[in-house]
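Question:
Now give any protein.
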Amino acid sequence: MTSVYEGGEDLTGEVREKSSPMIELGTTGLKRSAGYINEEFLPALKGRKAVQVFREMSENDPIVGALLFAVDRLLRQINWRVEPASHNEEDKKAAEFLESCMEDMTHTWDEFITEVLTMLPYGWAYHEVIYKKRVGPHEKDAKYRSRYTDGRIGWRKMPIRSQETLQKWIFDDKGGIKGMVQLAPPQYKTTFLPIDKSLLFRVTTVKNNPEGRSFLRNAYRPWYYKKRLEEIEGIGVERDLAGLPVAKVPHDYLAAKKGTDKAKMVDAFRKMVRSVRRDEQEGVVIPTSYDQDTKQPLFDFSLLNSGGGRSFDTNGIIQRYEQRILMTVLADFIMVGHQGQGSYALHTDKTGLFRASINSVSQAIADVLNRYAVPRLFAVNGWKVDQLPQFEPGDVDPPDLQQLAMFMGQMNQAGVQWFPDPELEKFLRDAARLPKLDEKTEDMREQQKKQSDAMTMARQQMEMIQLKMQAEQAAQQPQQQEMANEQQAMSNEQQAMSLEQQKQQMANPQPNPQEEQQLAQGEQQAAEGEQRLAQKEEIHQARLAQMMRRGSTE
């Protein structure tokens, strides 16, 4: 008997030929069991152990700390702006509302970004979205307190749900993330946080792994060896300064049974040897006792100094591992200059790669906000627009003002008109760290921009009308030439007929009745030719009048 699944019967070993394109048959292949992820092959980096290790790396290692501090400072200095979907009034109002929600939370936007950046060491960051009704600034209840009084629903806060408080994940049948189960102090109660009410930020989304992949994962191995070498180096320095403790006791004491006075004496000497330290309280107290036969002391304590140097340069080895830690995230430029070498050009190239990677981090944060946070905000307000506004992070690497000036100058020479443009002027002022314009000046520049656009549009329309008239006149030229040719031909015929009549009159001064009849017929034909010529002239004049009326209407 075959089992029945969502996509149909289980046809093991056979190729399914027919299935609905709207049914999901496979899964991502994420290794999980009972809500726990089992993708990591190192036992030390599985589950909560990974959180502890990455926390130790980020908070207890100077190199990793410098790296994370640099990333945090760079991302906090960028300017987050809201871009409307278009330039119509409805989309501009939607963008203004989103920007007001961004600035109306109980915490600042920079604080929110700082908490989101905890995804770098841990691989993921889970934030719960809490809303409020914007009643006014004087409300005591935080659910209604706001700078605005429009009565709309806005963001109250987006607090992080710490990585240390994760108990397990909840998935659907196809591997989709349904939420996180939290076990947090001080009450340590399990709480389910649905994904529809939260935002999940991740460094990577391979296999739809909710825990992503730590920014420091590739740095774990060099960090581990570096940590152990530093511990060994510290022990070695201390022993070199203090000397190797050596205690001498009689051999029968070493062979004494456990619990006897001799065995206790040996244990005391062992403890004393292990605990010797060079500090302000250093000192050793040993009993004075001599052998009756040899007259030598039974107990002795001394410090042996190691002669010569070490065969390994621990400092060089540790620096090598430090450099490898930074290389894993393209941040080895931090070491430039610390080793007495390095050029400015090399430093510029390396920082360029690092800043590009940081830009990708800010864009990943913006993608999550635009895909989940913004649509939910407008949906809860019942605000339906064709396209939603979006968060746009600024560039971590500011533009080179000299190169920017050269580019704008060259484009201006090519015919590009940059000003008046208030948005461009605002960008240039921000890039050059110049004072911002006041609202009146911005409104005036906006009006100038609209007037300039209107004049440009009118000029373009006039040029189009002129081009159309020229095209129509060019199209009428063959017809006019044809009519002129016809008139010339008729004139030639009339002249020929007139000459013929004159010849006949000269040849026959007294025409007979037949000649008079022929003469009358010639006159009649000449009259008919003049009539046809007049009709063609009228048609020509009517066409010209119609062209003039069409040009004036456009």
In short: The longest strand covers residues 177-184. Residues 455-553 form one domain.
